[in-house]
Amino acid sequence: MPNEQPPKIQVDSDWKAQAQAEKEKLAQKAQSSAGPGGAGAAKSTPGGRAGGGGGTPPADFTTLVSTMATQALLAMGLIADPRSGQRYLSLDVARHHIDMLGVIEQKTKGNLSEQEQELVSGTLYELRQHYIQVASTKRG
Fold it and tell me: Which residues of 75-114 are buried (b: 16+ CB within 10 A; e: fewer)?
């Protein structure tokens, strides 16, 4: 299939703005709770490293969801590989990451805060919409 054109990718700018606003809101919340001895103080992770220090994100639920979403977006070609700068398309891999987030949503039902539940369900909704769009573009 060397003559096949890469899929045209349309990214909803409203979604980008909403994601950026949510990211800033979370950063502000983390800063406000990061006082001396506060909940945001450096926490030790199972590996013995301080969470969030040295460029490593904290080991928390938000990071888990974000990591899975990023992997799905990479596999759909919506984000370039940070190492190579290239985009690739693997709908099977994207579907796997989306399905894994679905498992997380099912297995944590009733155990999440309202904000965490909104994060998971909103992320899943957006990823599924992007998946449908990319898959239909590839087929068409």
Answer: bbbbeeeeeeeeeebeeeebbebbeebeebbeeeeeebee
Q: What is the value of pTM for the model shown?
A: 0.62
Residue 64 to residues 1, 52, 87, 104, Cα–Cα distance (Å): 36, 13, 22, 10
Could you tell me the residue ranges of all domains in the chain?
58-140
Looking at residue 2, its amino acid is P
Block residue for tokens 């992007």: 130
69-115 pLDDT, tens digit each: 999 999 999 999 889 999 999 999 999 999 999 999 999 999 999 99
3-state secondary structure 5-64: CCCCCCCCHHHHHHHHHHHHHHHHHHHHCCCCCCCCCCCECCCCCECCHHHCCCCCHHHH
Nearest to 59 by CA among 73, 68, 46: 46
Residue 130 CB coordination number (10 Å): 23
